[in-house]
Methyltransferase type 11 (Mycobacterium kyorinense), 265 residues
Amino acid sequence: MDRYTHGHHESVLRSHRQRTAENSAGYLLPHLRQGMSLLDIGCGPGTITVDLAARVAPGQVTAVDIADDALDAARAAAQAHELSNIAFATADVHALEFADDTFDVVHAHQVLQHVGDPVQALREMRRVCVPGGYVAARDADYAGFIWYPQLPALDRWLDLYDRAARANGGEPDAGRRLLSWARKAGFDDITPGGGVWCFATPEDRDWWGGMWADRIVQSALADQLVDSALATSDDLVEIAAAWRAWAAAPDGWLAIPHGEILCRA
């Protein structure tokens, strides 16, 4: 990955801070035990990390990200939860600077869709995992997003995001490919699965629609779309208005599918 499509604008971190182990890593939780060592790749602001750290304590958690500002937010989250079993480091998942067989669990949430070589990333995740340990990954699948009312500007939003993510070397439809990538990475003990985020209550619509209304005009994604002439600022304002209209619709509904893999190293 040369460029993280979303960037780390406040509107992006607002989205990431809603993620918890329960709503984003539920498939992994039954396999966690106290005392396990865990590597959390692409930790972002650390809300999933702190949940995982609480579950494996006194086991040590190492949280890594490519962005220093994301790591700063994760450190703050760990301090707020008074957790002392988390270490932080900058890392590239394609070439992790950890010894072989280091961690009992290696976890990545919404990471493989953004990297240039997800198969190599999974190979690295397998390398640093102890034999018999768990490598876990979960990613959304943008082509599977469905919503109502079907506003044309939101179709335009999805097309623009797809174009921007692919221009950055990512795969926005990663969810459906996780099993294939894991097999190519050499795993033969894989439990594939899936999950869905659904936003349909007034509170959820207000949060999601408001977040994307801000994000499409202010984030790194917005800058990329305008700088690359994929969209004008007026186009993005129109999309923002559509997100607000969707959020205000009393029958508004949106679902986001995710692929999941739980692999034994």
Q: What stands out?
A: The longest strand covers residues 129-140. Residues 209 and 238 are 13 Å apart (CA to CA). Residues 202-218 form the longest helix (17 residues).
